[in-house]
Specification:
There is one protein chain. By secondary structure, this protein is α/β, with parallel strands linked by helices. It contains eight helices and 13 strands. The protein has two domains: 71 residues, 2-Layer Sandwich (GMP Synthetase, Chain A, domain 3); 172 residues, Rossmann fold, CATH 3.40.50. The chain is 30% helix and 34% strand. The model has no long low-confidence stretch (mean pLDDT 95).
Length: 270
Amino acid sequence: MASILTPEETEEMYGAFDQIGSKIILRIPDSLLSKKKLIGEVLLEKVKTARSIFYQSSPVEGDYRIRQLELLAGEDNTETEYKEHGCRFKVDIEKTFFSPRLATERLRIADLINDGEIIINMFGGVGMFSIVAAKKKKCHVYNIDINPYAAKLCSENITLNKLKGTVESIEGDASDIIDKKLADTGDRVLMLLPERSDEFLHSAIKALKCKGILHYYCHIHSDRKNQVSAVATSHFMSVVNVKSEVLGAKIVRPIGPRFYQAVVDSVLSK
């Protein structure tokens, strides 16, 4: 990059890309958009494992949680295979939501699960959290996603991996699925849609057994990083309407200046 960007521009690009299998996705600052094609071509040359370089031209949005991508260099193909924690995943980076930056959190959740648990993953995407969990533990995971492409890829990913537990891919709206077939079912519920967790909290509580564990993900603005966990906990306690014992809270990842994704782990009794 040093050949085409100043040190200041290189600093701006730092941390602005994700590699998913053979695909690289770039988030390019407005000040560098005029150089986007050149940046893509240089990256394709430098990163030997990359086959395609894409510019993310829109935020992740909509019910399907997808983004617009513009090819900068390489193959015009958004499908790839990604490996993590001993698992293989088919991913379509344009038609489904996926973030490699949640790898540490996926392993943390898997380690918390006990053999024999029933887990409801309300916004499971292509099955990343669910399959990593079932790879490590003899659990059963309901992986729900409203995006038909994600549900299809999850089914394919289940067959790609040798699992200790089992995963069931369900296409549909999480609230509807819980109402129809999964009320009072889960020992543990994952709410991996931080921007809409409050909206779906009632359904998450309904999905749990009389007593169960909820992993509540949220977005938190805070001027002080060391206060994010406390702010997330306070917010969660203000919106939950059943008895709750908070086990812990932490930053999952920074997502912007003074803006964080956080998780609150709690035991709910209803």
